[in-house]
Write a structure and sequence with these properties.
24-stranded antiparallel β-barrel, disordered N terminus, fimbrium biogenesis
Length: 809
């Protein structure tokens, strides 16, 4: 290149970012410097060159972010503006002036890349911005629970005839109302002795529970008014109340993880890839930039394990770090709280009397995650002559399990008592161990005991709490040789009676999917053994057989043979039958046949031995009132979805499982839905006629507890057709002519003047604009207000103005 032809004072060159950047020296001209900036260490004799400014690409620790910044070269040093360094990730604390000499900064290396016009900086990795990869800090995206207004009536009719006991009829029912105002439920059972003696069971209706509840999902709060069961901790008890309850309910938010998951931190000197392996399985791979990084995208595991973090840089160099961890779901995340408070009247004679409430009482629990390894717990109860308070802790011992401890003090009817509780749990993928002990003084009381005193106030016999209880358990996986478990239970009742049981169990998969199960129990007090051994053999996905031999503590034996066929997902027949040869009580026989469709489930069968037998029949289901109609369906235990398509015989799937076809009115009820679970619902439109269409075939959402939701997949006649458009000369409108209609998206003319128009009505005014700018209007009128199936309309004439003359100025 002839240097004399360069523009004085400006030199342009291509840098790595792909942009043409101009280097402007502070002094001198094109003849003063070469075609590239000088490297450090140039002779100081050339003072003009020593005080030049250049535009260079800035790369920090091999991380090229495409930054182009002004760089001053002065006496062998590189000077950069503070703002440019901060843009590159250098922390403010390391930038002490507006112009920084990076060559003189401590622990910083500056290198000039002459060929690619870049300034390469190497700084300590801890200076650079921290990065956090938190892909699974929750279960996934949040789906707020939905609910439509409606009513539900569950029923279960059961009739039985017993040898010597006559015939008895019972009808369980539940009435449920739901919508944006919350959920209301009332359930109970009606019983009637038809023939024979009623015995201890009374005839008539018995109400179980009546309540109203509402939820605040943002704060994971649940409010319930009416009959309720108080919440409890592992070392406290629950009671039935009639009153009010408010508390946390994390089941409302399945997207939240309430217990602490481990995180792993490190530093990358250069751009790298970080892979996380948990218990030998790769769970994530992340590209990290230079600087500190933290991995919190831990899978949902429980117990002890090992995590391996492998860092690989661009040159293939790998660093592997193994870190043990322990995850305990009983702990709360640091700063997270869980609580519940209940107050009302103690429920008396539940299941025997409809409205029997006793003394006023209250109960409350509170838990708080002080750190990720320490959770504090507290509990209190109160009544007219009862006061109880207690506190406890859950403490994680690093990677060696969790210990718990609690102490409670009570005063009941003037007597003071105390309860102590402690335990330990440790589990891995191969084995687990645990123990839990509770000790109580003779005068310790709580609401459960207080309520029993209220129920039996007219007698002198009260139940008592156990004085001591201990549970020990262990299990180990033997891989292909099966699994082994052991448990020891030792309980001393309030009267001094002791129960001391040892249980051993073993299971193993045999050929195919068949399995072997062995169990043995020993009563240490009587030194008697009992046990069972059984083999299960599946014949198909739905059918199986099992055979077992059992021995009780009295030495009696029984050989059992059982055959079963499970209910298909979309309904049909299911059955099971078994026989047993018993050394005591005669031979036992049992059989049951069930049938289910989309609207009802029925069953009938028998069971008993040579001396005593029962025959029974049962029918259950639900009746739903929603969207102005009544719909029969299977029994709804939690939530349901009513799918509406406005078209019959459409296949509906729930989580990819076929649930059935819509009825003549276009409805199908999906009865077995887990509340707050974000499930997928879709319909199959492959069999739709060509003139029918839908705007949506799949949705994912969750339903509120004890509620239902109307899911609408509108299937309607296709209001679209092909239309041919010509100009006044009979020629097709030009390709790519834009067509606009009021309230509709822009459409385009294709080859031969044919356009596909959607959302047509009875009268359709069409505005056309050709690619050369000419405009015209036409109109399509449809008899009946909608297009006929598979019909092409036209040609429609759209009068275009003439093309402007080429000589027009």
């Amino acid at each position: 290149m002839n240097r004399s032809r360069l523009v004085p004072g400006r030199h342009c060159t291509l840098i790595v970012t792909g942009l043409l950047n101009c280097l402007s020296p502070l002094t001198g001209s094109a003849e003063t410097y070469s075609t590239l900036p000088p490297p450090p260490g140039i002779s100081s004799a050339d003072s003009n060159t020593q005080q030049q400014e250049f535009m260079l690409g800035l790369v920090v620790n091999d991380d090229d972010r495409g930054l182009v910044v002004p760089v001053q070269f002065r006496d062998g040093h590189y000077l950069l503006r503070a703002a440019d360094l901060q843009r590159a990730g250098i922390p403010t604390a390391q930038v002490t002036s507006s112009i920084m000499d990076v060559s003189a900064m401590d622990r910083v290396k500056a290198e000039y890349d002459r060929q690619r016009q870049r300034l390469l900086l190497t700084v300590p990795p801890e200076w650079l911005p921290a990065q956090t990869f938190a892909g699974t800090t929750h279960n996934g995206p949040r789906y707020e629970g939905r609910s439509s207004n409606g009513a539900l009536f569950n029923y279960d009719l059961y009739a039985s005839q017993t040898t010597g006991g006559g015939t008895r009829l019972s009808a369980w029912n539940e009435l449920r109302l739901f919508g944006g105002y919350g959920q209301f439920s009332s359930n109970g059972i009606y019983q009637q002795q038809i023939t024979g003696e009623a015995g201890a069971l009374e005839n008539g209706y018995i109400r179980y529970d009546t309540w109203w509840s509402n939820q605040n999902e943002d704060h994971a709060l649940n409010l319930q008014v009416g009959d309720l069961i108080s919440d409890s901790l592992a070392w406290s008890s629950s009671v039935r109340l009639g009153g009010i309850q408010v508390g946390r309910d994390f089941s409302l938010r399945p997207d939240l993880v309430t217990y602490p998951l481990p995180s792993f931190s490190g530093q990358a000197a250069v751009p790298s890839t970080v892979d996380l392996f948990v218990n030998g399985y790769k769970t994530s791979s992340n590209n990290v930039q230079p600087g500190p990084f933290s991995l919190t995208n831990m899978p949902f595991v429980n117990g002890a394990g090992n995590a391996v973090v492998i860092t690989t840089d661009a040159q293939g160099r790998r660093v592997s770090t193994t870190l043990p961890f322990y995850v305990a779901s009983d702990l709360l995340k640091s700063g997270l709280s869980d609580y519940s408070f209940s107050a009302g009247a103690l429920r008396r004679n539940y299941g025997l009397k409809n409205f029997d409430y006793g003394a006023a009482a209250s109960s409350g629990s509170y838990r708080y995650g002080l750190t990720d390894w320490l959770t504090l717990e507290s509990h209190a109860e109160g009544a007219e002559s009862l006061a109880l308070g207690g506190a406890g802790v859950q403490l994680k011992l690093g990677a060696w399990g969790v210990v718990n401890s609690a102490v409670s003090q009570s005063q009941m009817e003037g007597e003071n008592g105390r309860q102590y509780s402690w335990g330990y749990q440790y589990s891995t993928s191969r084995f687990s161990v645990g123990m839990q002990q509770t000790k109580r003084t003779a005068d310790f009381g709580n609401l459960a005991l207080y309520a029993d005193h209220q129920d039996n106030s007219d007698t002198i016999e009260y139940n008592t709490l156990s004085r001591r209880s201990a549970q020990y358990n262990a299990s180990v996986s033997l891989d292909r040789f099966g699994s082994l478990g052991a448990a020891l239970i030792d309980i001393t009742s309030g009267s001094g009676d002791r129960t001391h049981l040892l249980n051993l169990s073993y299971s193993r998969t045999l050929w195919g999917n068949s399995s072997l199960y062995i169990s043995a129990s020993r009563d240490q007090q009587s030194a008697d053994w009992s046990g069972a051994i059984g083999v299960s053999i599946p014949f198909s996905d739905l059918s199986s057989a099992s055979i077992s031999v059992e021995r009780n503590q009295q030495g009696g034996t029984a050989e059992r043979l059982n055959f079963a066929h499970s209910m298909p997902t979309d309904g049909g027949f299911a059955w099971d039958a078994s026989v047993a040869n018993q050394s005591e009580g005669g031979n036992y026989r049992q059989g049951n046949l069930r049938w289910r469709n989309q609207k009802v489930e029925t069953s009938a069968g028998f069971y008993g031995d040579d001396d005593f037998s029962t025959e029974y029949a049962d029918i259950s289901g639900s009746l739903v009132l929603m969207d102005g109609g009544a719909f029969a369906a299977n029994k709804v235990d939690d939530a349901f979805v009513l799918v509406k398509t406005d078209y019959p015989d459409i296949n509906v799937r729930f989580e990819n499982q076929l649930m059935g076809k819509t009825d003549k009115q276009g409805y199908l009820l999906v009865p077995r839905v887990s509340s707050y679970y974000p499930a997928k619902y879709d319909i199959d439109t492959l069999d739709l006629p060509a003139n029918m269409t839908t705007s949506s075939v799949e949705q994912r959402f969750s339903v509120k507890r004890q509620s239902g939701y109307l899911l609408h997949f509108p299937i309607e006649p296709l209001r679209a057709a092909s239309v041919i458009l010509h100009d006044q000369n009979g020629e097709p409108l030009p390709l790519s002519t834009q067509l606009t209609r009021e309230g509709q998206q822009t459409e385009f003319v294709g080859w031969d003047g044919i356009a596909w128009l959607e959302n047509l009505t009875g009268r359709n005014v069409i505005h056309a604009q050709t690619p050369d700018g000419r405009r015209c209007d036409t109109e399509l009128t449809l008899s009946g207000g909608r297009p006929q199936s598979l019909t092409t309309y036209g040609p429609l004439i759209c009068v275009l103005p003439p093309l402007p003359s080429r000589n027009t100025p």
